[in-house]
């Protein structure tokens, strides 16, 4: 049982990121003081969305200079904090050197943050943003799981530096965090494992993979057909609530799958069809698996990834999030239409 004093500052890594932006918004709305370590505290353009929210909120935000991969970088920002949110980790799927660009930053970043937690005696709780990919590597893996539905007891054991390196990076980083947590008894850790995050961010021009998939739905990239991928989705605003509740629910513990329902890319397009179908070239059918397998490598989709994911159901059990963190998920149609609408309003597509 950990009670966090809301008059003390709260630190969050990756504050300018897609997920963290909505967490910061929530913390500020509740009147908290947010410590945000960022690469460049003088970059007014990068920080304008956070500053705009702070200006309209009860809470306040203070920026610190820090780099995820520099040891000791978070010392100053963490001073006096009882609660630390660690959200920063690279989310890219096409990289030149998976170990250097994905695995090392995820692992070293987590080590650096938690090393600072170990020497900052005010810290009582860490909320770590992991991912459902630390639970399931490929959709095909679910065939070995009871009822073919994954829960928090399961770990991804099939990803590697060479196959699904992003999934591997999240798995090794979360395992490292649990190891460091178990080696001491002052601070506890609550882990959030979201599925694919969608929904409007505080920054309408973000460059995350989430924005890429929405952009491809609307810009004609998929007009020949949608890839037959089945994925769980969660609204970024619901994910922020999950983090907030994980931080401030005294009895919260362990891992939490944060995911609404699972859909194919085509079903996601179907949610947008009524409002946007006439103006945008949304996909109307699904590409056959053999075709994706054939042309996938040219699009940066490895054949092994196609073989182990396309055409398989991706299902997780979100019961714990509802029972322990009080999660209520908004419907997928709202998430997708709000997100697509934000991109349309901000001129991401030229009609």
UniProtKB/TrEMBL annotation:
Domain of life: Bacteria
InterPro entries: Epimerase_deHydtase, NAD(P)-bd_dom_sf, NAD(P)_dehydrat-like
Molecular function per GO: oxidoreductase activity, acting on the CH-OH group of donors, NAD or NADP as acceptor
Domain NAD-dependent epimerase/dehydratase as annotated: residue spans: 10-243
Keywords: Oxidoreductase
Pfam families according to UniProt: Epimerase (PF01370)
Gene3D superfamilies: NAD(P)-binding Rossmann-like Domain (3.40.50.720)
Protein name stated in the entry: NAD-dependent epimerase/dehydratase family protein
Protein's organism: Flammeovirga aprica JL-4
